[in-house]
Amino acid sequence: MAETMNPDDVETFLRAHPDFLQDRPALLAALNLPHGGQGAVSLVERQVAVLRERSIASRQKLAELSDIGKENERLLKATRDTILALLSAETKADVATIWQQQVLNGFGAELGTLVWFDPDEQDDPRQSVAKKLLAGGETISGVLRPEEMAVRCFRR
To answer: What is the pLDDT of residues 100-110, one digit of tens each?
Structure first.
């Protein structure tokens, strides 16, 4: 009868009942499970190896997620500190100074700019770059092109 059974059916059954052999030591003893031979590995050893690999991968993923969480926490704190600092500003000069300090120190940016939209200053190249970037009407993020980088206010 054993020869007529489909090995896939046996595998499906054993996967559905992983404790099946635990209560049948005589059956387990009758099975041909190689151990310690030429290149052979016992099922327990193989299972331990697989679980160890999964554990290592899980620890690496957890460490990665923890690092992402720490970075998000740092950015949240920097954002909060920036908002609170900007609320204390009394003049445009205060806002510019606070913004520059927060962008460079709080966020660790290498460079940044703060553009005041003033209709009386049509020739300010910073305003033209900002207007061009904002022309689409949507929020943007990314790397500035070389010509946009040339028009900056402050740098680390």
So the answer is: 889 888 888 88
